[in-house]
Structures are given as C-alpha cells and as structure tokens.
Design a protein that fits this description.
This protein is an alpha+beta fold and 209 residues long. The chain has helices spanning 15-23, 27-36, 108-113, 147-158, and strands at 2-5, 39-41, 57-60, 78-82, 86-91, 139-144, 179-182, 185-187, 195-197, 205-208. The chain is globular, with a radius of gyration of 20 Å. The model has no long low-confidence stretch (mean pLDDT 89).
C-alpha cells in the first residue's frame, strides 16, 4: 500500500512520475497501477498524465507483475571462490541481485543460472541467494549450491557470525577518524527507493575506521 499527499515541490508534476519516485517502482508499473484504478487521486481514477496539485491525496496498491522462475542469461560474472557447497562471486555496480518489481531480468541470478552450477532453491525466484547488495553497490556475495548450505549461511549472517566490510565514499567531514554509528535504518519516508535513519527502521550498528 502507498498513501501520500502531494508536496509543494511536486505541484504540477505528472502523477505517474511522482508515484514511481515515491514507491520506488518503474514508470511503466506506476502507469499500469493508475490506469487499473489500483492507485487513485482523491479516490478518483485519473490518467497517468494528471498534474498534481498541492495536498492532493494519492493512495492505493501498486500493481504487482507476475514473476515467474528466472531464466539463464549470458551476463558476465566473476567467480572468486568455488567448492562443492558454495560460490563467492563479485557483483559489479549496476547489476540487481535478484528479480523483483521493475527488474524481472538482467540480474545476478540470471547470470548465475547461466553458469550451469547447482543452486539452492532451484526453481525459486532467488536460487542460491544468501544475501544481497544494492544495485549500485559492488562487492562479494555468497551463493549457496544446496539448501542446507543456504540455511546455514543465512543463519550465520543473522547471528552476525560472518563479518561484512564496506568501503564507502563519504561527503563532508566525520568528527572522528574512527567510531561507531548506532541508529535504526529503514526505507526513506518519501523517497521509497532510498534508505535512511528512521524511527521505524531496524537496529543497525556501523563501525568505521
């Protein structure tokens, strides 16, 4: 579900553009949701080209496309380690980890299926996937070849038995050369494609050096 009132910055913008940005979905999916009446403006079905006025209420449920089992695609992927139970692959920036709304193909999962390796959860939407990285983030990902290994690694991550390190470019100046940031992180309240510190977020602890 999504519900918001158009802000002064959004006055005069097309509702499909604002809806896509707010919900973090493609413009096409936003247009489909408006045309079907699943998302309305002030309770009325409007055209995707409708120009919003300040305070107009937009609400409803984004149409969900059918997502079938992903198919193998010839997408290059670098394997850093492989044994009988798992793979460690290097995900480049710009590549989505697994199929989802707005990204039904061209993902790391499609690339993994093309390797011909056994993968945990064969036939599912996310075969082999243990964890994910955001589209524009590069780094190493664990990929399980069987269900037992996948369950073990997911549990190890949940219990924080696996350490993850990130190299980040930070704008501005930190008060100290090293330290700890402890704050809840969740979806940004208005920019739904972005993450932010928010009271409704999940507990998060980041150590930086």
């Amino acid at each position: 579900m999504i519900s918001f009132a158009a802000s002064s910055d959004e006055e005069g913008e097309r509702v499909d553009a604002v809806l896509a940005r707010r919900a973090g979905v493609t413009r096409t999916l936003a247009q489909r949701s408006l045309r079907s009446g699943e998302v309305t403006v002030e309770g009325r079905v409007v055209r995707p080209s409708h120009k919003l006025a300040v305070g107009e209420s937009v609400s409803g449920a984004i149409a969900t496309p059918e997502i079938g089992p992903p198919e193998a695609e010839d997408i290059p992927v670098a394997i850093r380690y492989s044994d009988q139970r798992l793979l460690v692959v290097s995900k480049p920036p710009g590549l989505v980890t697994h199929p989802a709304r707005g990204h039904l193909s061209g993902t790391l999962v499609n690339a993994l299926l093309n390797l011909g390796e056994p993968l945990a959860g064969a036939g599912s939407i996310r075969p082999g996937i243990v964890h994910r990285l955001d589209k524009d983030t590069s780094g190493l990902l664990l990929v399980a070849k069987d269900d037992d290994t996948q369950a073990f690694l997911v549990d190890a991550l949940r219990r924080r038995l696996i350490e993850r390190r990130y190299l980040a470019l930070v704008r501005g100046r930190l008060r100290a050369a090293s330290g700890t940031i402890e704050a809840p992180v969740g979806r940004h309240p208005t920019r739904r494609w972005a993450m932010a510190v928010t009271a409704q977020g999940r507990p998060s602890v980041t150590h930086y050096t």
